[in-house]
Sequence to fold (278 residues):
Amino acid sequence: MNDIGFGLGLRHEHYEEIVAAPGKVSWFEALSENYMVDGGMPLHWLDTFRRDYPIALHGVSMSIGSIDPLDHTYLGELKQLIDRVDPLWVSDHLCFTGLRGINMHDLLPLPYTEEALDHVAERVMRVQDRLGRRLVLENVSSYVTYAASELTEWEFIAALAQRADCEVLLDVNNVFVSAYNHEFDAMQFLRGIPRERVRQFHLAGHINNGSHIVDTHDHPIVSGVWELYAEAVRLFPGVPTMIERDANIPPYAELLAELDVARDITAKITGQAREAAE
Fold:
């Protein structure tokens, strides 16, 4: 599907290291809100990296599932950034982040109902019309469910992708976290996502508190997530992979080494598939 390979989240802690050691990754994912500014050093750095690397834009503030009106000021600023960067794709989260104008600064899960599906699909199509491109939506980690839900999360995502003609950012860590927290089969989730809709993989670390897992993005990726990632690579070959780290940011070299694990897993799966085909 895509041949751009393996990337990392673009974090300011690594700017100088990236410049000093170019070519270690194929692409970067930039957090949209960090660069939705009129000027200054953030845009200077983004322009610098965009000259040498493909960039994907990833947002956290669209609140596509909210019942509040779409924020057209936000969408206008995002469109300006898109025009500047010409990103590989533009993603955000399948969630809501607030209500009645209050930003809760969290990625809150939706009720998986037909009513919510109609509501979100209509909003996605409006956003896509505004941005002039498909939107890529990520499954979030969750800690609560709704008694009103009529669909599984994967059924909801699959139906939304079809109805709104959008794509999926499949966060493997989030699948792992939510499967643990809600006691569903992570493989059933993966198998329920349409292969042709998956645009990107996310990998990240978390904290296991025994009774529940919290998606923190501040630890290395655990073995169970790597195992689930191997299954995702089998199901969705050729999908670009990147690692997110948002706190306890390690040296650039440590993240590069972790990304090499993803490369090795993918190479092994690809080799096995080739041998089976022969």
